[in-house]
Amino acid sequence: MKSDIEIAQEAQMIHIREVARQLGVEEDDLEYYGKYKAKLTDALWEKVKDMEDGKLVLVTAINPTPAGEGKTTTTVGLGQALGKMGKKASIALREPSLGPCFGIKGGAAGGGYAQVVPMEDLNLHFTGDFHAITSANNLLAAMLDNHMKQGNGLEIDTNQVVWKRCVDMNDRVLRNIVVGLGRPTDGVVREDHFIISVASEIMAILCLAENMKDLKERLSKIIVAYDYAGNPVTAGQLNAVGAMAALLKDAIKPNLIQTVENTPAFVHGGPFANIAHGCNSVRATKTALKLSDYVITEAGFGADLGAEKFLDIKCRMAGLKPDAVVLVATVRALKYNGGVAKEDLNAENLAALKKGIVNLEKHIENVAKYQVPCVVTLNRFVSDSDAELDFVREFCESRGCQFALSEVWEKGGEGGMALAEKVLSTLEERESHFKPLYDENLPIREKIETIAREIYGASRVTYDLMASQAIDRLEKLGYGNTPVCMAKNQYSLSDDPKKLGRPEDFTVNIREVYVSAGAGFVVAITGTVMTMPGLPLHPAAERIDVNDQGIITGLS
Length: 556
Fold this sequence. Notes:
The protein is of the alpha/beta class.
């Protein structure tokens, strides 16, 4: 059996201008990064902005497990299947972070015969967007520290600096550091921190900004610190916005690549869904909708994270209205939620399946809260028994969901035809009445508790003292009327990753709260979730290599 990287390297890619031509995009509106990658010009949006939107389909999933679910693979395969059916379709994805690629998760280009290519480029440096974001983030940090060293005219309280440096790598030793050590000329000594680049507010801003004007306005609102009187100090006050925007000038433009079956793929931006808002850029999604009749997009991790933020943050801010949601699961993952060890998942176990399917049930209920039609798909494994598949099908259909098996990993677009037919019939027969879960003008605590209660199923929410004080402070400063971006572990509906299935009667604890004023939301960190991941005992980086011919191996 061929590996993902072998399949990707054997793909028959076509020149990116031919991919663009499928969407009616001319060569003048492409900025080439070699033969197989291009950025879309600002001028293209001006040409297409008044065109009618296509249908928007969100792909999400149950909570991730070691058994694998295949959300991105399903997104790619569904787009390919629609293409095979003669539909004008494209997909819209996030760019992978280097941290997970070299850590434990691996790449994020799909899998098998449902991948986006060039896979190695996408998983590594791609078009340099993440490097630009990292540079802009750290330029702001450098200007902040320089201001404090050069007289501190804004009277910044060094104990209330909130802007963190970033790097796009899992590096736990950088979580808590001390800067400014050495001679007096080396700066002000203070505690500092690093986050991973995909958790940077600049990543969120890039993905939510409509254009350069909007980008600069958002950058100017970034709160970097508070002064001695407790007032926020912004990037705009540090005169950093112009230089940051210059670094992001190209990064804000959407990227166009292709799948292994040459389906157009808009891949742009990459905020994590467990610690950020987990969606690709508004610009990429909106451009794809103007150029395609069907756009298949994904949001990170399970529906309790990525989908909730897609629906409550991205759609609210961008005025998007999804027409359908595809919810991905596997029999193996459901049995894992039912208590079966990973090494025993290949054996038929209807009892465990019945126990674990409550996780899928909760996600179906969550999608229904947004009044968007739902299609459930199972990524089929050869170990799945007919009895197991029939049980899941009957379970979903009894709850009003269309159901289809997916074999896109093995068969590409052909293996997604059944799913594509269900999606098309859902779009034709069921109308979406999308509505966000909560009113953004509610108090911050009420928004947090609505998400915890309605989406996670929590009985109660508790707040650490500093989190509670931060909420009071933010509301007093006028930052309460925004959506809430919940930072939570991805493995459980609760804030405890060990609680699988559908936990009941549990408490969600809010550890930290802060505002991303430029992005336009308040972040609430739950449990022990980290904004700078660490590497595992044996990271994926140990298996990655380049041979004498320059061919990369071990990247998955």
